[in-house]
Design a protein that fits this description.
The protein is mostly helical and about 325 residues long. Helices cover about 75% and strands about 0% of the residues. It is built from 17 helices and no strands. The protein is flat, with a radius of gyration of 26 Å.
Length: about 325
């Protein structure tokens, strides 16, 4: 009995200390309560709907009363002729965005950080930040207007230089991924470089001064001082991006999609919307199964990339 009392005494002391800590800084914990409630309500509570992926949903019976069908919805998706198409399109667009879009903010931040003219540097930053605040609807409208064969900027230049009308790029399946990726890079280049510029701001200026005294060129200082300083940040960002490979922005794809380019533009997110909501025969269970498959693949990818980063370096999420 005395052993139990001695063991419970440190526990009571820890609880008392924790209670005093919360009461002394209750304002900070109150601020923490709001995002915690948000995460619980919008992230954890909806997880109860995952069971739809293993049921044959009936609006009359509801979520809890619908019969279980096991993995039938997943087998239906894997056997569908759309499985290969949407998976290939999703991976192609995502990898293209990652390969083309991930290094550019790093390169841009290094170039921007090496500029000596402060006013010019701030002007470039402001100009490149602005596209981030353009809504997706407006951005797609701008893209469609610019590549218009008759009145678009690219259409006029092409007609002037080649003497021919610009092809209908938005209707060409091969051009869809290029339009999607590079318009996204233009929109997010400046905003994506903010975190790297912040990391570069923490680099000790004495390192640059010592390297300059030793005769290091500007390129050598960027290569051996600036780039290694942002490498841990870039690694973490790469791990986070790898967990979003199967997530292609629905709104932008849906707005750019049409009957001509649908063969290359139908991705998992748009397919889920069509079979779950837009179809005349709404199949919520089938759509949930596809979404769950997508989430599981993302989770597996982020775990694999994090494990690989853990083996080759000390930079990892967990």
């Amino acid at each position: 009995m005395s052993t139990v009392l001695r063991a419970s005494k440190p526990v009571r002391q820890k609880r008392s200390a924790w209670r005093k800590e919360v009461l002394s800084r209750w304002q900070l914990y109150l601020f923490l309560l709001l995002p915690l409630v948000y995460i619980i309500v919008f992230a954890y509570v909806p997880m109860a709907g995952i069971q739809l992926a293993f049921k044959k949903f009936s609006p009359r019976l509801g979520i809890w009363g619908s019969p279980w069908v096991g993995f039938d919805q997943f087998r239906k998706f894997f056997k569908s002729y759309m499985f290969g198409r949407v998976l290939k399109n999703t991976i192609r667009v995502s990898l293209y965005s990652l390969i083309a879009g991930f290094p550019l903010p790093i390169i841009f931040s290094l170039l921007l950080n090496s500029m000596r003219n402060y006013k010019f540097k701030r002007s470039i930053q402001m100009i490149t930040y602005i596209p981030h605040f353009i809504s997706t609807v407006v951005l797609v409208g701008m893209v469609l207007q610019m590549i218009n064969p008759r009145v678009g900027i690219f259409g006029i230049f092409y007609r002037t230089l080649a003497g021919l009308d610009l092809p209908n790029l938005i209707g060409m399946p091969k051009a869809f991924s290029h339009l999607y990726v590079w318009s996204g890079i233009w929109q997010g280049l400046g905003w994506g470089s903010i975190i790297y510029i912040s990391a570069l701001a923490s680099v000790d200026s004495e390192l640059h001064e010592a390297a300059e005294i030793d005769g290091a060129s500007r390129f050598q200082r960027v290569r051996f001082i600036d780039f290694p300083s942002i490498l841990p940040t870039a690694t973490i960002m790469l791990i986070l991006h790898s967990g979003q490979i199967m997530n292609v922005e629905f709104e932008k794809v849906f707005l750019m999609q049409n009957g001509l380019n649908q063969r290359a533009s139908e991705v998992i997110s748009t397919y889920v919307y069509k079979v779950g909501i837009a179809s005349s025969r709404q199949d919520f269970s089938y759509a949930t199964a596809i979404g769950l498959f997508n989430s599981v693949i993302n989770f597996a990818l982020i775990c694999l990339v994090n494990s690989f980063s853990k083996r080759v370096s000390d930079n990892r999420l967990w």
